[in-house]
Amino acid sequence: MTDPLDGRELFRRYPGNPVLTARDWPHMVNAVFNPAAVAVQGETWLFVRVEDRTGLSHLTLARSRDGYSNWTVERDRSLMPDTGSWVERWGVEDPRITVIDGRYHICYTGYSSSGPLVCLARTDDFRTFERLGVVQVPENKDAALFPRRIGDRWAMLHRPVSTVGHLQAHIWISWSDDLRYWGDPTPLIEARSGGWWDANKVGLGPPPLETSEGWLVLYHGVRLTASGSLYRLGLALLELEQPTHVIARGDEWVFGPCAPYEVAGDVPDVVFPCGWLLGDDGDTLRMYYGAADSTVAVATASLSDLLDHLAGHGGAQTGRARSRR
Ligand code: BMA
């Protein structure tokens, strides 16, 4: 498929997109999208949100040697919702994986009968899962752990929703001694207002990526238009040892729906990444994203280009989380 903007955007779409569709699944499902990503022994493992034809979602592993083709879908490596429980009654969605002490820690949305909340589970093999339970109460989603303690505590980014006045959905940071109990919640990346591309609602994409300049954050901003919500992506940089400080926040979006598989699907005009992987060269980033809530696609970018871009376009700070520069 052609991409009219390729060559000018920071992220370049893989020409073979989408890399995974419902047709690749061994059984009948409606859609596969919003995958977490981890590199395991040279392979790319995606933990994919699978929406079956009940409308509810579960998570299933798909593996590829090159991260682009020849995917093996492992149906027996799935996190199925505990639909008998209140917490996951309507499914599990949108995982983000952080490797801590060699174990895969998965923050995912539990679709509870009181709304979306954040659950944490960990696994060594994606066959059995240790559920640590609910770590953020509703409404809360788009959560991921930092991969190491900062100071002496664990940190998590997440996105609570407030309906005071009108919808307000900002990215917050919370802290924990043991990964189980979370406190000290602080607003971090505030949705802007008015005509901005990321007005009123933002949410974390993949887990924060540690770079020499700071923690790189990719987030989605949602613009409400006459024809629905438009999901685009922007960048921010957090101070390494004090991530409550936003060093920079991009003023422009860096990726938005454009290709046919992004603008048409179950939910048109959505790009929604939950995982990214840094290549062995230390610079090539592969971003895995759900396209239009229907398929999985991948785009690549140069990490140094992203950091350069932020340095040049990071002027517009709003709200509580301001740059110290
Ligand atoms: C968000 C999440 C995502 C979804 C997106 C667009 O609120 O529910 O799972 O991809 O909306 O529909």
From TrEMBL:
<protein>
    <submittedName>
        <fullName>Unannotated protein</fullName>
    </submittedName>
</protein>
<dbReference type="InterPro" id="IPR023296">
    <property type="entry name" value="Glyco_hydro_beta-prop_sf"/>
</dbReference>
<keyword id="KW-0808">Transferase</keyword>
<keyword id="KW-0328">Glycosyltransferase</keyword>
<dbReference type="InterPro" id="IPR007184">
    <property type="entry name" value="Mannoside_phosphorylase"/>
</dbReference>
<dbReference type="GO" id="GO:0016757">
    <property type="term" value="F:glycosyltransferase activity"/>
</dbReference>
<dbReference type="Pfam" id="PF04041">
    <property type="entry name" value="Glyco_hydro_130"/>
</dbReference>
